[in-house]
User: What shape does this take?
Amino acid sequence: MFSSLLQSPLFGITLTLVTYELATCVYRRWTLALLNPVIVTAACIITLLCQLDIPYAQYAAGGDLLLFLLGPAVVALGLPLYQRRAEIISRLLPTLVSVSTGAVASIVSATAILLLFGSDLSLILSMAPKSVTTPIAIGISEKIGGIVPLTAAIVVITGCFGGMVGPSFCRLLGIRDPFALGLAMGTAAHGLGTGRMLEIDRFGGAMAGLAIGLNGVITAAIMPIFVALLP
Assistant: This one.
């Protein structure tokens, strides 16, 4: 019976939802960036699968169904954008310039070190879309010849790290304006960074949500040029 349960998609779905709910309770209790529910959930599930010797494929039968919901979740970020549309429109030019610069910087910073050390091309292409939200990053990776599972993992790690240290790092640099903070978090740390920003400031969260979409479009547009320039 236990074996049949592991084979069912319900296993991955139930494990993920229960673990995330418990992680959320812990985060609400202590409110530490390191205890971000996504980070804690991923760590707990990985540990459980390894300790019980459960193949990832069995978990993914249900876990991948939740991955599909990332798309609608990103679309839902349009609500705070609509609510603050007047302010966003008034700052459209600096928004486009900032996100475009961030998109280019993200690609270059992610791949320059790998190029310097002569890494494999597939690894470089997998790393390039690291700051784009997962559904878009997976699509880009597929098109340019990257390793899709590796891209997905790198994107999640990037988001977790950005969500943890992004606000503190920006404040250390003297960046406190919610507009600038939101653009930085959304561009560099996609959905997880946006979720963190929504906890800090509603307008900043709206800008982060806008930055996610713009960064995805801009990265997808410039990625063919980047690939063509690779040696």
